[in-house]
Sequence to fold (167 residues):
Amino acid sequence: MFTVKTSAGATKAELYRELNAQLGGLLAGERDGLANAANAAALLWQGLPDLNWAGFYFLRGGELVLGPFQGKVACVRIKLGRGVCGTAAQQRETIVVLDVEKFPGHIACDHASRSEVVVPLVQEGKLIGVLDLDSPSLARFDQADAVGLAATAEIFLKGSDLSRLAD
Fold:
């Protein structure tokens, strides 16, 4: 049994170091991309405060398709360049949105979401998908989250065979 452990009162940088170390241990010896995405989403959901969604979208057939996640029912398909996920994927850049209602073209899968961070998953120059986190609080995410989640994405990409999840 795996138990998510976080230090009370830790800074965001410390929290991400702990979670990413746990993710590395969780993925050790397991390459299945689907299983690893499911466990990574669960780890983030349990280990990060104030989330209402954490999960993955994978690039398939030229659009982002819903992958493993924790939270409410989500949008299944997102076109590149559309919403925060599609924009981050198209630009291949992490996007931190303090207020999703102010993001042009935001896709409201869960109307309770108020802020969002999306990290593109790029492996050997190829877009694989995105890691997406939502919060019901305004300005929940910042640069520390972007840096910590970029490290999360890198651990996930290095430890996972995603050949059956993305084109």
Remarks:
- The chain has one domain: 12-159.
- The two ends are 33 Å apart (CA to CA).
- The helical segments are 12-27, 33-47, 83-91, 143-159.
- The mean pLDDT is 95.
